[in-house]
Amino acid sequence: MKMAKSTTKNAEFNIEKIQRFTQNEFNTLTNTTTEFPFCFQVGADVLVGKYRVTKIHDKTWRVSVKDQQIFDFFTRKDAIFYCIALHQKQTKLAKDIQDNDSLLNRLEFDASLYRIRYKKAQSKGDEWGEEYYSTRYLEVQHKIKAVKKEIEKNLNLAKYIKV
Q1: Residue 31 phi, psi dihedral angles, 5° rounding
Q2: Cβ contacts of 31-34, under 8 Å, gap ≥ 24
Q3: 111-143 pLDDT per residue, tens
Q4: How confident is the model at residue 12 (pLDDT cuts 50, 70, 90)?
Q5: Ordered DSSP codes for 88-143
Q6: pLDDT, greater one: 50 or 143
Q7: At residue 56, what are phi and psi to the nearest 5 degrees?
Q8: For residues 52 and 47, what is the distance between their CA atoms, to the nearest angstrom?
Q9: What is the pTM of this model?
Q10: Angle between the 91-124 and 127-160 helix axes, to the nearest 10 degrees?
């Protein structure tokens, strides 16, 4: 029995043509004015309409448009929905997402700081310090819970709002 010849050996691909076509298609899709933007993941980055969400490290995501940095977010989800809100021309909603993301990061930093200070006070036997930092930690946890609810509300608005 005779084996069939491979046709891929003779085929020549023009890589430059394919890259140009792909780039043109990306440009067309990013500039569409549909209700929701075109979203596409490229490695760890996400293209959301004309915006690019770039992973800086595990807890930082940078939003940029045409290589100009807009803002750094502390969760990928917030960054993506921020871009969706901007695409829908909902600037107040985008600002709320941005503010709440920043506030949540600051509160989580405060919580970790109070936890460390509580442990230091506990190791020194400082009862007043233990009580103070324990109380501050619990207050911050309540604020974190409230901010997370607000973020969830804003993300739902970004999903379902009609323009």
Answers
A1: -100, 10
A2: none
A3: 999 999 999 999 999 999 999 999 999 999 999
A4: low
A5: TT-HHHHHHHHHHHHHHHHHHHHHHHHHHHHHHHHHHT-HHHHHHHHHHHHHHHHH
A6: 143
A7: -90, -50
A8: 5
A9: 0.72
A10: 160
